[in-house]
Amino acid sequence: MSSFTRLESMEGFYYTLHPKPTVVLITLCPNGRFNAMPASWNMPVSEEPPTVAVAVSRETYTFECLEHHPEATINVPHSGLADVVYSLGSTSGRDVDKIKKFNLKLESSEIVKPPRWSDAIASLEGRVHAKLDVGEVRLYVFEILAVHVKRDLYTRWGWDFTKTNILLHGAGRTFYHVGRMIRAQKLA
Ligand SMILES: Cc1cc2nc3c(=O)[nH]c(=O)nc-3n(C[C@H](O)[C@H](O)[C@H](O)COP(=O)(O)O)c2cc1C
Predict the structure, then answer these.
(1) Ligand 1 pocket, 148 CB below 6 A?
(2) Which of 27, 111, 162, 182 is most buried as measured by Cβ atoms within 10 A of its Cβ?
(3) Per-residue pLDDT tens for 98-111?
(4) In sequence order, what E strands does the chain have?
(5) Which CATH number fits domain 13-176: 3.30.70.80, 2.40.30.170, 2.30.110.10, 3.40.50.620?
(6) Average pLDDT of the chain?
(7) Whether the CB of 86 sits within 6 Å of ligand 1
(8) Which atom of ligand 1 is nearest to the CA of 137?
């Protein structure tokens, strides 16, 4: 007798792996504008070269933008930005200028054309290094060319959670932030 229950459907299977840190991709689009899209299906891939993979649905305008110009900034929002992040993720840049509509403050990147989001706590400059189509998604692996952080919030080991927090996406409108720190003991 197992203590597990097999899910009857695969719908939402991925919630077993949530909440996930959310980033906002800023891209340069065929309409000449910049666009911003949240993506919680993202992960570091390799240290050398530094790479980050992001799963982008081929239905998004961001997909068209990345095919038009294969660079993005990968911006890390703090948890206070949940409303704007959710709004960016429930509107398409195909229909509306989201940068204007949601009043996103941008500043130039150093290497790539897409700018960074001034309110983010980190912005990684990425250029497409590899792509893989899986189902409805194109998985983009970005080589990270430069990383910018809000210096007072970042330590050698990552974010100082006494000063800031990141946005973990649960489901739909639900987000979490990072809670209590746990220090593991090595079992003998
Ligand atoms: C918190 C959050 C995380 C999301 N993560 C992803 C993701 O990882 N990949 C994806 O393709 N869409 C994701 N979405 C949905 C897109 O952000 C959404 O389809 C967006 O409107 C696309 O914008 P665009 O058409 O301007 O590119 C997410 C939405 C939210 C709110």
Answers:
(1) no
(2) 27
(3) 999 999 999 999 99
(4) 20-21, 23-28, 34-39, 42-44, 51-57, 71-76, 106-107, 116-117, 122-134, 137-149, 154-155, 158-159, 168-169, 175-176
(5) 2.30.110.10
(6) 98
(7) yes
(8) 11
Q: Report whether residue 91 contacts ligand 1, using a CB cutoff of 6 Å.
A: yes
Q: Specify the ligand 1 atom closest to the Cα of 54.
A: 8
- pLDDT > 90: percent of the chain: 99
**Cβ of 82 less than 6 Å from ligand 1:** no
Residue with tokens 């919680």: 40
Q: Over the stretch 24-62, which tens digit does the pLDDT of each residue have? A: 999 999 999 999 999 999 999 999 999 999 999 999 999
Please compute the mean of the pLDDT values over residues 123-147 and round it to a whole number.
98
106 Cα: distance to centroid of ligand 1 (angstroms): 19
Structure-token match 């952080």, residue found: 149
38 lines ligand 1 (CB under 6 A): yes
Residue 52 Cα, ligand 1 centroid: separation in angstroms? Answer: 17
Question: 158: phi > 0 → left, psi -120 to 50 → alpha, else beta; which?
Answer: left
Give 14 Cα–ligand 1 centroid separation in angstroms: 15
